[in-house]
Amino acid sequence: MEYDVYVQACPTRLVLDRLADKWAVLVLGKLDEKPVRFNQLRREIDGISQKVLSQILKKLERDGLVSRSVFATVPVTVEYAITPLGRTLTSTVAALTRWAEDNIEAVLEAQQKYDRSA
Amino acid sequence: MEYDVYVQACPTRLVLDRLADKWAVLVLGKLDEKPVRFNQLRREIDGISQKVLSQILKKLERDGLVSRSVFATVPVTVEYAITPLGRTLTSTVAALTRWAEDNIEAVLEAQQKYDRSA
DNA sequence: CTCCATGGTTTCTAAATGAAACTATATTGC
DNA sequence: GCAATATAGTTTCATTTAGAAACCATGGAG
C-alpha cells in the first residue's frame, strides 16, 4: 500500500482535506472533552453557523471520527461523541490549537514587521 | 493574556485558519525537508495551482513561518525556506499527514459502512 | 526567431461559505 | 388557547473563495 498525501489522487488527500479544516479542529477539540449536544456545540464554538456545524458533523460521522446518538426526549436530544478512531487523532489536533495559542504573539509580530516593510 | 481559539474574535482564530488548511500543511511539510523553489514546490505538491501556491506562500511568509529569498540568476530563482518559528510547527503538521496515511483505511471503511446504511 | 524555463498575475467560472430565515415538534408560561 | 422557548436541523441567497487556464516579462538554448 503506497499512500502519499503529495499525490492528488491519493485518498489520504481527502482525509487531510477534512482534518485540515478550522471547524473540524475545533469540533474535535470540544468532543474530546466529553459528548456534547448540537446546540451546546454551537454555543461553545463561537462564530460557527448551524449549517456549517451540521455539515461538518455529518462528514466527521461519515469518516468514523464522531458518533451521533439520538434520544427520544422532548424535544429530541442529539448527542455527538468522539469515536475510538477519532480519539487517536485528538492529541494531534489539540497540538494545533495549542501552537496557535502559544505562538500567536510571534505571528502577530511577524505580520506587523511584514506589513511595515511593504 | 487570555487567548482562546473558541472565541471568534481571538487572533488565534486567524492562525488556526491559516494552519488548518490542506495546502499550508503540504507546503510546510515539503519545506521542512529543505528549501525549495517555486516551481519545484508546484511539481511536488500534486494538484496545487500556481495562484493558490503563490497566495499561500505569501501568507505563510507574512506570518513569519516561511522566508523568501530571491537570487539574481537567469531566469530569476526564488527559494522558499522554513523559519525557526515555522520549524516549531512542523512536527505537529507532520503528525497530521502521518495520521492521514496511517488511518486512511479505517476512514474509507467507515465511509463505506455509513454509505451502505444510508 | 521560436521554444523553454523562471516566477508570478490576471481573468473567468464553479464551488463553498456565512447570515438569516424557515421547518417541525412539544413543553412552559400567562 | 396563544405566544414564547427549546430542541435539531434544512433552505435560500449573497458573498467569498478556489481552481483552471491564459497571459506577462526575462533571457539562454537550439
Outline:
Chain A is mainly alpha-helical and 118 residues long. The first copy, chain A, has 5 helices and 3 strands; from the N terminus they run H-H-E-H-H-E-E-H. Chain A has helices at residues 12-19, 22-33, 38-44, 50-62, 84-117; strands at 36-37, 66-71, 77-82.
Structural summary, described in words:
The structure is a homodimer of 118-residue chains. Chain A is mainly α and 118 residues long. Chain A is built from 5 helices and 3 strands; from the N terminus they run ααβααββα. The first copy, chain A, has helices spanning 12-19, 22-33, 38-44, 50-62, 84-117; strands at residues 36-37, 66-71, 77-82. The model of chain A has no long low-confidence stretch (mean pLDDT 93). At the A-B interface, helix 1, helix 2 and helix 5 of A face helix 1, helix 2 and helix 5 of B. Chain B binds a DNA duplex (30 and 30 nucleotides) through residues 37-39, 42, 47-55, 70, 73-78.
Write the layout of secondary structure elements.
Two copies of one chain form a homodimer.
Chain A: H1 12-19, H2 22-33, E1 36-37, H3 38-44, H4 50-62, E2 66-71, E3 77-82, H5 84-117
Antiparallel strand pairs in A: 1-3, 2-3
Chain B binds a DNA duplex (30 and 30 nucleotides) through residues 37-39, 42, 47-55, 70, 73-78.
